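Model it.
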Amino acid sequence: MKRNLLFIFLLLTIMSGAAQNKLQISHGPYLQEVTGDGATFVFLTSEKSFSAIELKKEGADTSSLYYHTQYGFRDAYNTFHSIRIEKLEPGCTYQYRICSKEMRSFEPYKVTFGDSIASQWYTFKTIDPKAKGGAIFITSDTHNNTKMLETLLELCDYKTCDAFFYAGDVMNYMADGETPFHAFIDTSVKLFASSTPFEVVRGNHETRGKLARTYPHFFPKKDGKIYGSYLLGDIMVVMIDCGEDKPDDFWVYSGLNDFDSYRTEQAKWLKELVKTKEFKKAKYRIVISHFPMTKGIYDYKELSHGMDDLSDKCLPILNKAKIDLMVSGHTHEYAFHEKNAGGNNFPILVGSNQSAARLDIADGKIKIKAVDKNGKILLERMLQ
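Modeled.
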């Protein structure tokens, strides 16, 4: 009898513990669009919940809760959470944590809450507009290979990097809502992304799959766009969204694409960007584009359509904009194209599907170090 009672007690204890741990942070948090005065916090919970970010200055005794609010509502009864906090101080270090409360039912006149959880505290720093130079990590075409991604990050000494950029095709295609996490986000979170943001420049493979149209959902921007610019102190990074490589009417797209018009839209935006005070004031100007923009170097017949269309529309603008460096991928073959090698008025670093680059930017110079997954140095070059 005693044994039976002991067994029942242990079983109830285990079941109670499982119930208490039902609500968890299943992915994240990861930072997006950190600026001088704001940051976006993205995370997923295992159950539908009501969530907030608790934020305070580093070392402060008091904190505040922030929610995603829209149309008069605080966001609730979701598993995906994206919370933007504005009016922060430039160059300031903050601490934050996730606070979530499970929502077991959500009726018109009654809400039933379940368990509550709070994550550990994380630290991040807003952009300092007076910062000089920095260290940038860039890779592309890892195609869901998280082991290789982690190796490349280690080889580039990621712990001393100030910013991280994925230049496209880090996924094979958008199969389901877990794909971005399994492909690279979870690895990024494990190593750095809860404290230092990453930016993703979409490649042609991210435009594929039944959930490709949900891509911006995972990487939220205030303006809702995928392309854009990112100011890191005196470094301006321009991010071009290339679209597909084949013509819009190619049979495999089933008439669902319109990337030619989209690239025209970006060219108009780019023409205005290079006129802005922020762009002109930047000491360093780096462009990240999944497709390398050249003339006469790459000829893949119909597979070159997207590259050619992008180059025709954007290269003339960039050639007049005093660009220091373009970093690309797509070809799966490492290359470094000197200035004027193919209609380009700036050097172009093209990563392979097994390489990464670290840019150390200081004193008017850009030091490039490109390595492959085995640690072989592909390029060491100083631009000035």
